[in-house]
Amino acid sequence: MIHQLVYYSRNTVPGGDRAMLTNMREILSVSQRNNARDAITGFLIFDTQWFVQILEGERGKVTETYNRIARDPRHASATILNVRDVPARLFPNWTMGGAMRTPDVQEIYLAHGFGGPIDPTRLKSEQVVALALDLQAFEESRRQGRRLAS
Ligand code: FAD
């Protein structure tokens, strides 16, 4: 079985979209390095002021990774929405995929009923997973398009 943990947290890094993009890139770069080492996969969503992340892998490694992330000063009030064992990884190809809420993914948010900013304090983990799976599919098709174009 694969252990899956879903949490949300509040961004503490000040600045606009550009600062956030840099922040996301740094976080994803370190995450991809560490998660490849620890066989962790998942997806990180950033919407306005909230992070929502899904981590999946071996139970001990997921717990260790979450504990390290929760201490990071770039966010605060990390709150676990759900932990469960699942038969297989939902994000097998992503040591950590990520998506900021930009206009090109707005339709995906709308399709999931998020017209305005998401409020993770009112979210169910299944909604997070469903949104992340669609964002993952969008990112994968975008990457595929880039590969075909080059
Ligand atoms: P280094 O990257 O060398 O960092 C050393 C220390 O400096 C750590 O305590 C780190 O938190 C801190 N640090 C590094 N950069 C900054 C910065 N710009 N501002 C403030 N402090 C900083 N890590 C993962 O391994 N996997 C994940 O999936 C993952 N997801 C994350 C999601 C979010 C929303 C955030 C905010 C962070 C995430 N991280 C993730 C990063 C994690 O919190 C640690 O920073 C990282 O795992 C530490 O890696 P390292 O041991 O190689 O140390």
Automatic annotation (TrEMBL):
Top-rank lineage group of the source organism: Bacteria
SUPFAM superfamilies xref list: Acylphosphatase/BLUF domain-like
InterPro entries: Acylphosphatase-like_dom_sf (IPR036046), BLUF_domain (IPR007024)
Name of the molecule in the record: Blue light sensor protein
Sequence ranges assigned to domain BLUF in this UniProt record: 2-97
Species this protein is from: Methylobacterium aquaticum
GO MF, any single term: FAD binding
Pfam families xrefs: BLUF
